[in-house]
Design a protein that fits this description.
The chain is 30% helix and 19% strand. The chain contains ten helices and 15 strands. Strand 1, helix 2 and strand 2 form a beta-alpha-beta unit.
Length: 325
């Protein structure tokens, strides 16, 4: 959330070198001025010519989350959805928001879901303590996606001896619910990647980087969020940690690594792993008529990689953006 043209374009150029042709820049729970500036700069750069992934819109991750499952989100910015708040944010965005992640069990979440449906914004479940009944209600109100499955969300709990299914179980119980996986080899072990694939299949799973500014950079200190108001993190061994190293702080993953992990560690067929990076996310964001498939009439976005899933060439809109030596 640096909210500078250089930050937006730099991220898009970096990720294109690792096989991304389209991405949704993602905000987190943060300072209102930073968010407003992010919207303004996005509109300045989204249609410019640059050598990187395209940005059809933004994904807002927060600020309407469960404090219990905040993960690396900054607690001081987390709050319940209030109409005057999200109407104001929407006005600031000038139509830039494609997707908005929130916790569906919060007070006011039902009205928020109605608002998202009215505006045509994809509603996604994230950083949440919801029980199965909450998720089912949210699904019926339009929440059809779960943000980074397993990460920062409820699973089975017990109340006076009785077991209560959480969001993880709900993802499997609701057949048409789609879900994301951070398949970086750190956030989820191969067994859970296999379970998700076996249960949901490539049509209902999306591979997602969840990357912060450390992606494509060497290990060391970094910042999660804006340079002015973000949190210090440590990047080690291919993942970002909070300073106490007790929790991850987002990812530094890239698209090639996601596919490589699914194929080589989780044993998923290559075609299905690629589909989870292409056709399925294109369908979710409403771009399946132009992106995610190699066919006549589709955008000429192509990625070539070798047997080890190292990127050799990235083409976007018919232009070669990246070519390895």
């Amino acid at each position: 959330m640096d909210a500078t043209p250089e930050a937006f374009i730099g991220a898009c150029e970096t990720h294109s070198r690792f096989g991304t042709t389209t991405l949704l820049p993602t905000t987190l729970a943060g300072d209102d001025d930073d968010l407003r500036q992010t919207f303004e700069v996005f509109h300045q750069v989204k249609d410019k010519e640059y050598n990187g992934a395209r940005m059809p819109g933004l994904h807002l991750e927060g600020p309407y989350f469960s404090v219990e499952y905040k993960g690396a989100q900054d607690e001081k910015y987390i709050r319940n959805p209030q109409p005057e708040d999200y109407h104001r944010i929407y006005e600031w965005s000038q139509g830039a928001i494609i997707r908005w992640s929130a916790a569906p069990e919060l007070e006011g979440a039902g009205l928020f879901a109605d608002f998202l449906a009215d505006k045509g914004i994809i509603a996604s479940i994230a950083h949440t303590a919801a029980a199965y009944e909450d998720v089912l209600d949210a699904y019926q109100k339009g929440f059809r996606l779960i943000t980074h499955l397993y990460s920062c969300m409820s699973t089975i709990t017990r109340r006076k001896g009785y077991r209560i299914p959480g969001v993880v179980e709900s993802a499997y119980l609701i057949d048409d619910m789609k879900a994301e996986l951070i398949a970086d080899g750190c956030h989820l072990p191969p067994a859970l990647l296999q379970l998700a694939y076996k249960s949901k299949g490539a049509d209902r799973l999306v591979l997602v980087t969840d990357s912060m500014r450390g992606a494509g950079m060497p290990d060391g200190e970094s910042i999660l969020g804006s340079l002015g108001h973000g949190q210090r993190v440590i990047v080690e061994n291919g993942v970002a940690y909070l300073p106490d190293r007790e929790a991850f702080a987002g990812s530094v993953c890239t698209a090639d690594r996601l596919v490589r992990t699914m194929v080589k560690e989780a044993g998923v067929p290559l075609c299905d792993a690629v589909k989870m990076m292409t056709a399925t996310p294109a369908e979710i964001i409403g771009k399946s008529a132009s992106k995610g498939t190699v066919a006549k009439g589709f955008d000429a976005d192509l990625v070539l990689f070798d047997h080890a899933i190292n990127i050799k060439l990235t083409m976007i809109d018919g232009r070669v953006i990246y070519k390895s030596d």
